[in-house]
Amino acid sequence: MMRDPSHVLNSHLITAFLFAVSLGKMPDPFATLPTEISFHTLSFLNFSSIARASAVSKLWNQIAYSPDVWSALCLDPEGDMLKFTPGVPVSAEELETLSNHYSNELLRRRSETDPSVACSKRMGLRGQFVSCCRHPKSFCKQNLSLTKCVVPPSRPAVPNTPTTFPTLLHSGLAASTTDDVYCQDIQQTLFENRPTKFWSSTGSMSGEVGNLDSREWLCYKMTGMCIVRGVEIIPYRAIWQLGDPIYAPKRIRFSVGFTDNPAQMHYHSRWFDVELSDFAQYFDLSPDFVVGEYLFITTDGKYTTQPADNLYYTVFQCVKAQGHNLGSDNYGEITRTVRKWRERMLREL
Amino acid sequence: MSDPANITLVTMDGTTFTVPSAYLHRSKLVQDWLRSEGDKQAMEVKHVTPFVLQGVLNFCEIHAEDTSEPLADPADPTKPFEADPRDDAFRGMPDDQLLQFTMAADILQIPELVRLTAQEMASRIDGKSPDQIRAMFNPDDLAEEDVDSDNEMGEVGEEGAISK
């Protein structure tokens, strides 16, 4: 950015400033500093502090209204809002493996994108997110309101029962493995009040975390463009088997994107630990601002072997995603920004 | 001809400071001056007092050996930034001095010092009520009407979602 050199020589202000200091009076910083330094100063603050600063005086109010102040906040709000981030990096090899496996499952042509290229492009696109935003202040306001409106459910009191929030998941696209394709496929996890329905992986020899044999994945299409706040899963308890075993994975990761191919997704969460329990477990993605149309769940490790064959299984009774569908009229600025950003993403991929 | 290894700066009251040029490699103003008028004896920094220039030069000396990438101007506030314990002196100074250093950092165009002082200034504003800020900084243009614009941005409720 080119700067106007004239501010450097604004001797009038500087004289006034030194005069004020000589009187032992603290001068108004924003009346003294060049405007871009004032913007820069405010851009370090969070939403509520900027709001308070804007109430100090007319001048402060004007400065606090500048988009320059808000765009930093929009990309990196501190504490009180969801924060836009690509999440935790996943290695290109791992993504390629997932992507190939995924394409095979769907009987599709292999993706043309080189995952390592997609990965680096995705990082560059983070910066573009803000340039897609025309009114950073509205974006921040809506983001704050969204963060307040969509809150994680409290811990459920009874097992096998999902909490009451409406799910964002529309349909299951594919799973890494399916033990019985007729009645244990991924679609079974979408039913909320049929505790006897479930998706089951096939058995594996290993249940160790990090062992590729113990990994599974599930891919869902969501109801449209959605902000995802968190995901809830219920590991399945097989009450008819000896010892009522629960087939939970040991850890779980969530990826979100505008396409269903995991290698092209722009967000990957950290690994969350899963409890060996048949209560609904909620994984909160905040403070990450996660937006997309497809949810890809990767699980790692398996706790339990099936008594009949001594193999490890992951079985889910129910999977739900919580958040907000951007198709509705609210959150206009977020929706516009995300649409524009999505177009750029898809062009680049 | 001046010694290329050193540079002499003259403040508003004629006080001179001679320091190794390497100290000022992050100052865009000094670098531009060296390119265009480096054959002159001394560079005038008219609008900075000796006390403040001394402090700025201390900062430059502390950071002369730093190998970090030069910051963009203005620095991207979203880049993670860890407080450097060597800069604690700047964090502890009174408000008016901090403001003088912010101005000097801007005049000399040292993005690292601008970020440090601007962030410190921000942390002093952070969490304070408008009245507390007014008491601290004596804003120039306090008029009655300012007081009732208080809640325009402070109120962010559900209706905030629908505004354009």
From TrEMBL, chain A:
UniProt KW keywords: Signal
Signal peptide: 1-24
InterPro entries: At4g00755-like, F-box-like_dom_sf, F-box_dom
Record-linked Pfam families: F-box-like
Superkingdom: Eukaryota
Domain F-box residues, every copy: 27-73
PROSITE patterns, A to Z: FBOX (PS50181)
This protein's record includes keyword Ribonucleoprotein: no
PANTHER family given in the database record: F-BOX DOMAIN CONTAINING PROTEIN, EXPRESSED, F-BOX DOMAIN-CONTAINING PROTEIN
Name of this protein: F-box domain-containing protein
UniProtKB/TrEMBL annotation, chain B:
Pathway(s) the chain acts in: Protein modification; protein ubiquitination
Bias (Acidic residues): 141-158
Residue span of region Disordered: 68-93, 123-164
Listed Basic and acidic residues bias regions: 79-93
Gene3D superfamilies the UniProt entry points to: Potassium Channel Kv1.1, Chain A
Subunit text: Component of the SCF (SKP1-CUL1-F-box protein) E3 ubiquitin ligase complexes.
Protein name per its UniProtKB record: E3 ubiquitin ligase complex SCF subunit
